[in-house]
Amino acid sequence: MNTPQPLIEPPPAQASSDGTARAAVERIQRRNPKADPQGLLPDVHPARIPRHVAIIMDGNGRWAAQRGFHRMVGHRNGATAVREVITECLKLGVEYLTLYSFSLENWKRPAEEVAALMQLYQDYMHGERAEFMRENIRLRQIGRREGLPAEALALRDAMQDATAANSAMTVVLAVNYGSRMEITEAVQRLARDAAAGRLDPETITPEMIGAQLDTAGIPDPDLLIRTAGEMRVSNFLLWQISYAEIFVTPTLWPDFDRRSLHEAVRAYAARERRFGGLDVPSPV
Questions:
Q1: Which of 103-107, 159-163, 214-218, 271-275 has the weakest average pLDDT?
Q2: Alpha helices in the chain (DSSP H)
Q3: Domains: count for the chain
Q4: Catalytic residue selected from 2, 36, 43, 58
Q5: How far apart are CA 217 and CA 211, in angstroms?
Q6: Which of 36, 43, 77, 106 is catalytic?
Q7: Is 257 tagged catalytic?
Q8: For this structure, is 106 an active site residue?
Q9: CB-based contact 227:253 (threshold 8 Å)
Q10: CATH code for the domain of 263
Q11: What is the pTM of this model?
Q12: Which of 105, 129, 155, 172 is the most exposed place for a label (fewest CB within 10 A)?
């Protein structure tokens, strides 16, 4: 009589790792069934895929200058990079992608370039709406409305309304945005409530300030990517990136592709996030 052989079980640590991986993928795919983080990055535990990626897209002008082109050629190629990064973030299961598209300070650029950038922005709204609907992507924009062309605002509002129920991923465009002004206006709203007797200043909390920001309802970025090698945050999400992991690459934005994104996500996944404390449990 043959003695039944025991089932070969994985070591406890491996079993635990496999279990958390399955749970992480299931969580991502409930929101975005097309996501395949393990297929794209098998060396990254799916629980370490950043929920929110924010990018300072820099280097369009330098990319064009290096090739003897007008700066707008760089911006148009930068728009192509935006499409590729959105597509790859969707496949990885990223939930929020915030792109710094046009800052309050960018109005200082030559009028010709500003006008061309506004036209590129409008072309983007025209050209990407069908793709956002097809891929179940929601658009949200942060930044001031004042100063933007009426046609651009109409296109933005229409696209936000059309995609409002989409749930696979949210793309947040920071247009006509500056973080110091965002925080200033948030504090002003709270100050008005306090002056009117509707709010006790002593009860103001960080959460109350966060609720007044343009990004209310959006989780803080986990990973901040800066292209073109610049070591600064350029007045971008100053409140929200307090504990974000920062990844700086020398790659100019038009050359930033899926491989560049994978490099940034791998670097993020290899870090231990402590949020000011110690011994944060690993998700693996």
A1: 271-275
A2: 12-31, 37-40, 60-66, 71-92, 111-134, 150-163, 179-195, 206-211, 258-269
A3: 1
A4: 58
A5: 7
A6: 106
A7: no
A8: yes
A9: yes
A10: 3.40.1180.10
A11: 0.91
A12: 105
